[in-house]
Amino acid sequence: QVQLVESGGGLVQAGGSLRLSCVASGRSFSGYNMGWFRQAPGKEREIVAAISWSVGFTYYADSVKGRITISRNIAKNTVYLQMNSLEPEDTAVYYCAATRGSLSFAKAYDYWGQGTQEMP
């Protein structure tokens, strides 16, 4: 089992910045890649960004390229999502998730956090 706990969401002005964190725990965490997803009211969950844990390869949704950066701290089992130039359209609940499969395919993710609300 893998446990994921997000933090860092909140209310921020449009144009501002926010950093989300997700701490992973569990004896079986090793080898999982991490992704950030979001779900806005009335919309389907969509991927924001993902990162391969071992080599740091990254994937970004076209809508966030240039504004959002995903990174990880291997020693802390933590993945981050740095969001800049926030727009009202970024309002959503943000989830981190873990997968041993495809970075960009939501159904490939096996474990999910509880979500954190972000409101620009």
Descriptive overview:
- By secondary structure, the chain is mostly beta strands.
- Helix content is 0%, strand content 49%.
- It contains no helices and eleven strands.
- The protein has strands spanning 3-7, 10-11, 18-25, 33-39, 46-51, 58-60, 68-73, 78-83, 92-99, 109-112, 116-119.
- The strands form two sheets. Strands 2, 4, 5, 6, 9, 10 and 11 form a seven-stranded mixed beta sheet that branches.
- Strand 4 (33-39) and strand 5 (46-51) form a beta hairpin.
- It is globular, with a radius of gyration of 13 Å.
- It starts with a strand and ends with a strand.
Nutshell version of this structure?
This protein is mostly beta strands. 0% of the residues lie in helices and 49% in strands.
The oligomerization state is: single chain
Label the overall shape: globular
Extract low-pLDDT stretches.
Answer: none
Distance between the first and last residues' Cα: 33 Å
Mean pLDDT: 91
Strand content: over 45%
Radius of gyration: 13 Å
- Topology order in helix (H) and strand (E) letters: EEEEEEEEEEE
Briefly note the structural class of the backbone: mainly beta
Count of extended strands? 11
